[in-house]
Write a structure and sequence with these properties.
- The structure is a single chain.
- By secondary structure, the chain is α+β, with helices and mostly antiparallel strands.
- Helices cover 32% and strands 17% of the residues.
- It is elongated and about 90 Å long.
Length: 313
């Protein structure tokens, strides 16, 4: 969908760490929140190319939890563009109950404790081990307490406890608090070998799998370059075409899950649609009479027989 406050195309550009322009775009920007397991889009919107992806994500979170208040989403995985604003990370943790999981996309103040080790405390034996993380207003806590997504909660409760990696009693345990800097002190540590740190790395390796959504949309003609560039007039047209294409991805997966593809294949096989066409026997198609009956609005033909009948035939 197109957010109400964004009505026109815009001009945007991307820069590297040195300020060099690496990409330019004039038009819309499609931003989506996708399920990492299935790579299917959950919610999406169009924004002018000049709009920050973080601002677009803020809108998407409002849409997602308005449509699906009990959504069990617990982590937001993204690229380094999402790690350039401490306020955004703080909103994810305390407003939406989500754990940010992004590659480092900007610097943090060297004055913050443990900044040189990406927020992980150290002792005489090196990086400390994350013992536990508690007090986070995550999806489970919100479900138990009835606290809706989008409501600030537990800013002073969330903390991460650390212990010596070899459990040396001489090394005092330490605690970090996301309230001090949600980009640095993260539920999923950026360093170390704790299960949570390993999980972060695994999620980041999987991140590019959601790019398949955009690739698939381009293959369906909704995007591309040159002659494959979709020509649309007006915001509503762009919104409708892209939204229908995105919805089709989920519809196709549902059809596969419930056996719809098998039924269609059995019907096509029975009707001879899978036979290789030749000049003497062209690909099956409606006859002229069938096409005319369809055009004048005759009642549709009887429902296709169930798959079992085709198997018997």
């Amino acid at each position: 969908m197109l957010a109400d406050r964004w009505k026109n195309v815009g001009y945007g550009f991307y820069t590297d760490s040195r300020g060099n322009v690496t990409a330019r775009c004039h038009g819309y920007k499609l931003v989506a929140i996708c399920d990492l397991a299935s790579t299917l889009p959950l919610v999406w919107l169009l924004a002018p190319a000049s709009v920050s992806e973080r601002d677009a994500c803020r809108e998407l979170l409002k849409i997602l939890f308005a449509l699906w208040p009990t959504c069990p989403m617990h982590t937001l995985v993204g690229d380094a563009l999402y790690d350039q604003e401490e306020a955004f990370a703080r909103e994810l943790v305390f407003d939406w109950g989500l754990h940010p999981c992004f590659p480092r996309g900007g610097r943090v103040s060297a004055a913050l404790p443990h900044a040189e080790t990406d927020g992980v405390p150290t002792c005489a034996h090196g990086l400390m081990h994350r013992e536990k993380a508690e007090g986070f207003p995550d999806a489970d806590w919100r479900a138990k307490t009835g606290t809706p997504r989008g409501e600030i909660a537990r800013e002073n409760k969330a903390r991460i406890r650390w212990r010596c990696s070899i459990k040396d009693p001489a090394c005092a345990s330490q605690t970090t608090y996301p309230r001090d800097n949600a980009r640095l002190y993260t539920y999923l540590p950026r360093a170390g070998d704790s299960p949570a740190a390993i999980r972060r790395r695994a999620l980041l390796y999987r991140r590019n799998s959601v790019e398949s959504v955009f690739s698939t949309l381009k293959n369906r003609g909704v995007g591309g370059k040159g002659n494959q560039h979709l020509k649309l007039v007006g915001d509503p047209a762009a919104d409708r075409v892209i939204s229908l294409a995105a919805l089709h991805l989920t519809a196709a997966r549902v059809a596969h899950a419930v056996g719809g593809y098998d039924d269609s294949y059995a019907a096509a096989e029975c009707l001879g649609y899978l036979t290789e066409p030749t000049a003497d026997d062209p690909f099956p198609q409606p006859t002229v009479d069938e096409a005319l009956r369809s055009a004048v609005g005759d009642p549709p033909p009887p429902e296709i027989a169930p798959r079992s009948l085709y198997r018997e035939l």
